[in-house]
From TrEMBL, chains A, B, C, D, E, F:
EC number(s) on file: 5.3.2.-
Annotated keywords: Isomerase
Transmembrane annotation, as ranges: none
Domain 4-oxalocrotonate tautomerase-like: 2-60
Isomerase as UniProt keyword: yes
Top-level lineage group: Bacteria
Pfam families: Tautomerase
Enzyme class, spelled out: isomerase
Descriptive protein name: Tautomerase
Gene Ontology terms for molecular function: isomerase activity
Organism of provenance: Fluviicola chungangensis
């Protein structure tokens, strides 16, 4: 029965990446909790980089400064 | 005081349907709980069909396969 | 497919009121949108009155002052 | 560690207002709670005026009637 | 930067299951999106079975009827 | 009209800190956006440290290791 919301910045996530998120997050959650996948919803919310901030700074400003959230 | 969020797929919901959702959900909730409607907010969030999945599959793919979420 | 969240203050809502919320909100939403009820989830989140505020004031303080959110 | 979501109607909020929201809300929350700003995220979700209602009425209809949510 | 919310019914999920959810969902999301895990938050919200419904019925009532959400 | 959700770990936040959050966040948001405070709701959701993670690790485990989210 879980509902999983994935909130992230709108920075070119592809349809295939979204499909992979839905499939793999659904698999992980339903396996750990032994839940019926048909009752398990995954919702992706994309947020403009002007509308997200951390460390007190807007992500779009961080990006202009060359600061990414990429894995190192 | 309730805040009600209705999260659904963006598939042609009309302005009139949204108005009906706001009116009728507000009515139901304020009647059951005896709450002041002016303190009761209803927020509708529309989600692209690429961004929602259940049963481990993306809704946009389900729609291409002719699978709907319509009432039977 | 809608997921509906109802967020309200924890002030003695009964099990029967919650059941009525689930049934009637599900009915209203699935009728207006013509959606399958089995894909429609309703989630009620109860919030302590110390943890909610409006007009810049904590609800628990408003209640001590005799101010309710009841329908007039 | 807080995550702060600010949900508001899409009515011309500027990039600079969003940046001010992110900075000032982050400051207030991290100061009161003594939390590391780098672990504190602020997310702004803009909602079309057709998709928000209170008092049982759609905000876009209220606006057409000249009713605003402006500070008095 | 993603924030992932997992909303589920409070039905005996153990601390170890929660830890596994956090680790595996974080892995899946950061791998697909190439994001820094230190900017990736996972939040689990447990909801009483009286407070969740689908198909228009309260989950606590479904459980009394022997209906589970277990994987088949 | 904004609704602000503040989601944080349940680690001894006092009633007075919550009241300060409600007052100051409401002030900041209504000042920047010129919104009526009476239409502005602030909701604080406290999450057990077993139910939150970042960097792929459960906060309760981080705390056992002496790792805090305190401001430095």
């Amino acid at each position: 029965m879980p509902v999983i919301n994935i909130e992230l910045t709108r920075e070119g996530v592809t349809r295939e990446q979204k499909r992979a998120l839905i499939q793999q997050v659904s698999d992980v959650v339903t396996n750990i909790l032994n839940k019926d996948p048909n009752l398990t919803h995954v919702v992706i919310r994309e947020i403009d980089t002007d509308n997200w901030g951390y460390g007190g700074e807007q992500v779009s400003v961080l990006r202009e400064q060359g600061i990414t959230a990429d894995k190192k």
